[in-house]
Amino acid sequence: MSRGLRAKGLGLIVALALSLQPSALFAQAHRIISVIPSTTEMLFAMGAGDRVIAIGSYDHFPPEAQRLPRVGALIDPNVEQILQMRPDLVVVYNTQTELKRRLERASIPYYSYEHRGLADIFSTIRSLGARAGVAAAGEALASRLERQLADIRSRVAGRPRPRTLVVFGREPGSLRNINASGGEGFVHDMLVTAGGDDLLGDIHRQNVDMTTEMVLARAPDVIIELHYSPDAIENPDTAAWNRLAAVPAVRNHRVILLTGEEFVVPGPRVALATQRIAAALHPDVRW
Fold first, then answer.
1. Which of 32, 112, 138, 198 is the most exposed place for a label (fewest CB within 10 A)?
2. HEC states along 140-202?
3. pTM for the whole thing?
4. Which residues are CB-contacts of 231 (< 8 A; sequence separation ≥ 6)?
């Protein structure tokens, strides 16, 4: 066979492999470990929860996952326990290089996950669903979430977009060490989808450290403070913002507290979280 014919034949084989569904390229997974909250939620939401045998230390949803053993988290995975459980798929975060190296040495397959914007959530649901052997359910889940977000966009279309500051955290009882959402990431995308104008949209980072002087200078119309840890949810504290009476959001009583992990876990609850942000920004819309 000539070199040209061999190359053509190889090209056809590669093209055929790429045309196959991902689920056809991998063995179906039946013993899955997920150490990332978002991917744990994805697996259960697409009906693969019965294949999950262990979860991460900070995986709090869904409730049915809580009966499973925990094997550490992002910075402290219990590698020995993971290996002893003989999984046929481990879902890891992309930065867990040591864990990936150990899994490779043990010939244990893994799925490496990393999130940025909203679009990454849907592509991950689809690819993880295919990798876990539930491609159709993954496609259905991703498509449903995309439709829900499209509906939110249509409901707020044409309405005024308040300049909004989304705060992840600050020192309790004070306005020191304010950490807020910047112009990148899924929280930024949720805010824009919900009909808000991101106050820090010009800063191309997911997190921005702010001073009170910066808040005064930027003068947000709305401040949304997210509380997602159990302690913060039980002990909400927004009174500190009253010290910035010159800020429109404070002056007009538009400092809004939203509680729940769905705001910071980039998984199947993003549509719910986006709708809650939209309802806070546009309370006159029927939700």
1. 112
2. HHHHHHHHHHHHHHHHHCCCCCCEEEEEEECCCCCCCCEEEECCCCHHHHHHHHCCCEECCCC
3. 0.86
4. none
CA distances from 134 to 31, 63, 88, 259 (A): 14, 21, 15, 32
- The DSSP bridge pattern shows strands 163-169 and 222-227 to be parallel
Q: Is the dihedral of CA 120, 269, 63, 48 positive or negative?
A: negative
- Does domain 3-150 fall under CATH 3.90.930.50? My reply is no
Where are the chain's structural domains? 3-150, 161-281
In angstroms, the Cα distances linking 136 to 8, 132, 133, 218 are: 33, 11, 9, 46
Q: What mean pLDDT do residues 281-286 have?
A: 94
The reported pLDDT for the residue numbered 232 is 55
- Which residues sit opposite 91 in a β-bridge? 34, 111
Where residue 19 falls among pLDDT bands split at 50, 70, 90?
A: very low
| Nearest residue to 284 via CA among 154, 155, 153, 150 | 155
Strand partners, 258: 226
